[in-house]
Amino acid sequence: MGAKERPLIHGSEIAIMSNELDYLSRRVAAGKLNRRDFLGRAAALGVGAVAAQSLLTSAVRAQGPVKGGLLRAGLQGGEATNTLDPALNLSQVPFNFCKQWGEFLVRLDRKGGLEPRIATEINPSDGGKTWTIKVRDGVEFHDGKTVTAQDVAATLERHADEKSQSGALGVLKDIKTIKANGKEVVVTLGEADADFPYLMADYHLVIQPNGGKDKPDAGISAGPYKVSVNEPGVRYGGERFANYWNAGKQGFADQVEIVVVNDPTARMAALQGGQVNFINRVEPKIVDLVKRIPGVQVRNVAGKGYYPFNMFCDTAPFDNNDLRMALKLAMDREGMLKTILRGYGSVGNDFPINKSYPLFADDIEQRVFDPEKAAELYKKSGHSGSILLRTSDVAFPGAVDAAQLYQQSCAQAGIQIEIKREPGDGYWSQVWNKQPFSTSYWGGRSTQGQMYSTGYLSTADWNDTRFKNESFDKMLFAARSELDEAKRQAIYRDMAVLMRDQGGAIVPFFNEFIDATGRGVEGYENHPEAELMDGYALSECWLSA
Amino acid sequence: MGTSIPVLIVKRVGLGLLLLLAVSILIFAGTQILPGDVAQSILGQSATPQALANLRAELGLNDPAWLRYLHWLGGILTGDLGTALTSRQDIASSLWPRLKNTLFLAFWAAAISVPLAIALGLIAVRYRNGFVDKAISAFALASTSFPEFFVGYLLVFFFAVKWQFFPGISTVYDGMPFLARMQAIALPATALTLVVLAHMMRMTRAAILNVMQSAYIETAELKGLRPIEIIRRHAFPNAVAPIVNVVMLNLAYLVVGVVVIEVIFVYPGMGQYLVDHVAKRDVPVVQAVGLIFAAVYIGMNIIADIVAIVANPRLRHPK
């Protein structure tokens, strides 16, 4: 952005400027110049704040992380009912904490690719039906044992067990056999799946000794921090693991701590008061105020999460595609984005994929608010009377307001929407995936195939729009077993278009993760996969000396 | 026909226990009619029908209700509160630290607010209808009339964010040094004090004023005693019963009614613990916490009754 603000700079000018800025940013990194002065000097040289900031970040990185100290995060999304069993990871606090003590086979990098962790390689054979995971040498568990192929195999077995309650069961249930063989684990699948390595990045799949079969909530894995405090719903603590395999890149603070702060005002106060260094879930409506607080930095990043309005494609009146299309066209996406998310997001296009996914096709026409066309299709559908939309505050932040906005934009197309506000308690068991028209949220998945398989395949447990389309399913299976990326991208594109024009999900917008960091936090780099650098903020950031 | 004090006390305690049993039935019945399903709530949005069925069978949710009640009651009588459905942890051992925290905060809030309220009440009576009386009443009523969360946020804004005297989040844990712990609870204890102060203070004032109309007070005045002496020696002992009643009610409130304050200050007490488990339909925990809250309430009321009986001979001779 900074560069766009002032395009008319000559090459020589840039060279001089960047020399000077380089010098200055090194001084900041060395602690000889403060950040504010630096930004002021940068501005005087005609460099926008964003560009200057990124220059500074790389200078500080080059200076090297500072070891030591205590990093604390105050997070929403922890309950007294949580456990350390990674199979049951669900809300944000267990998610963030498992990234501190847990280690995974692979993790997603910032460009949608995979970074090897305990697995050095995951290779297909048999056209994507058989996968071989190579286990890294010399990775040590917190209890001193070495991570073996048996441990990896046992972990996968536990999560893929029909009897297990693992949140990863859905993505692993196609696994037929798991065999440990020397330093390798060989997995065979029922159907070929090109996305298999991505499935291994699932945040439930923390590698545990013997797969956690003996004591699932022991909190032992091979992550950068050992669990030292485990008080569910209150706080968690970790101490640096001396024998961490990846010590050069992670685990800079001596100790990390997560305090559960579910109240947004209390979170903000804790950050301002310096009691915590990170918070998650800054409410969009206060972001502009937060930006003015000295020392506090808002970290927002576009992600894969979206807030759909779900219609059951097999239930009247939504079984009529004209009506579904009318309801899609009656959605004022831009207005919704501006009002509900205050612009912290991007408009949706009635399929669950956006540019944060690998192999996204960005040439699909954007659906826009068109009340006349909507009215026409509505008339054609032959429906009369009002349509009941169920919503609740827990569906997503601002869901009730969003429903009301939608009611108004529908009224412009002559469609009458009746809103029923449901209690938040029991919304996920009584309303979502049970009632034919309701608001919801999806967190997104690592790949397009995984997203479609979880939510839009005819037989998916969470097919919360009852979208049952044979050719869509066929394309999905074809894409999953297609190892050629260009071809896979083409299939994904067709699927997106099909779902956009016939599916049951109205996707008004994708949300952003909005976190904030306090004074002295260095090394923060946004990650599109999830909040707080995909949960790695505590182990990859450090406090400036 | 007077009954001796010990017999009266035994009767009151017996009644209290009976009441507690009745409450246990109510709690059990109440938790049965909560909408929603435990298994669904535990697994949340990521629940597959498969995982749901497995979990439901494992939790024994298919037994009849009366059988589960008897099991539960038997467990409690032998000191076993059961196992949390969600975290699979022993309820007694995870609840005990929370209860300790709640009692710790309640104790310090009470230690400040009760003497303060009574002293302010006495002073208000001494200078009744004057400026001091009105100022005390105005302050106390104002602090009570504001909703708790507003008082809490005001304290956080000034003391934690602006001046940074005290931490804004009051997380306490085992092994925390006493002074750090006191510093952590400074703001919530202050907020609670402000919330409960007025009720006790006004009751003290009203009860004593009521007694002040009596003939023996006039006699004391005519004897030439100083006003504060009259209040201390003659009026207060006679007004103590209603005051104790209100004090006990407020103490009970400090234990069972502080969810909002706990949330604002992120204090790991019983309230938040209960709310988390209600949301997850963790019935055994909800029942255990409910029972403890009921026991606190009934216990405080028994104490108030007993103090009233001891302090006021008339109650010992019912007509």
Tell me what the structure shows.
By secondary structure, chain A is of the alpha+beta class. Chain A has 20 helices and 21 strands. In chain A, strands 1, 8, 9, 10, 11, 12, 14 and 19 form an 8-stranded mixed beta sheet that branches. In chain A, helix 2 packs across helix 4 (49-63), helix 11 runs antiparallel to helix 13 and helix 17 (470-481) runs antiparallel to helix 18 (485-502). With 319 residues, chain B is mostly helical. Chain B is 76% helix and 0% strand. Chain B has 13 helices and no strands. Chain B has helices at 5-32, 38-43, 49-58, 65-77, 91-126, 131-145, 148-162, 178-212, 215-223, 227-256, 259-265, 270-279, 283-311. Chain B is globular and about 85 Å long. At the A-B interface, helix 9 and helix 15 of A face helix 2, helix 3, helix 5, helix 7 and helix 11 of B.
What is the structure about, briefly put?
The complex is a heterodimer of chains A (545) and B (319). Chain A has 545 residues and is an alpha+beta fold. Chain A is 34% helix and 19% strand.
List keywords for this structure.
heterodimer, A: 545 residues, alpha+beta, 4-stranded antiparallel beta sheet, 21 strands, globular, disordered N terminus, B: 319 residues, mainly alpha, 76% helix, 0% strand
Write the layout of secondary structure elements.
The complex is a heterodimer of chains A (545) and B (319).
Chain A: H1 2-5, H2 11-29, H3 35-44, H4 49-63, E1 70-75, H5 92-101, E2 106-108, E3 114-116, E4 119-125, E5 130-135, H6 149-160, H7 169-172, E6 175-181, E7 184-189, H8 196-199, E8 225-231, E9 235-240, E10 255-260, H9 264-272, E11 278-279, H10 287-290, E12 297-306, E13 309-311, H11 321-329, H12 333-340, E14 345-347, H13 371-381, E15 387-391, H14 399-412, E16 417-421, H15 427-431, E17 437-439, H16 448-455, H17 470-481, H18 485-502, E18 505-506, E19 509-517, E20 521-522, H19 531-534, H20 537-540, E21 542-543
Parallel strand pairs in A: 1-10, 1-11, 15-16
Antiparallel strand pairs in A: 2-3, 4-5, 5-7, 6-7, 8-9, 9-10, 11-19, 12-19, 13-17, 13-18, 14-19, 20-21
Helix pairs in contact in A: 2-3, 2-4, 11-13, 17-18
Chain B: H1 5-32, H2 38-43, H3 49-58, H4 65-77, H5 91-126, H6 131-145, H7 148-162, H8 178-212, H9 215-223, H10 227-256, H11 259-265, H12 270-279, H13 283-311
Helix pairs in contact in B: 1-13, 5-6, 5-8, 5-10, 6-8, 7-8, 7-11, 8-10, 9-10, 10-13, 11-12, 12-13
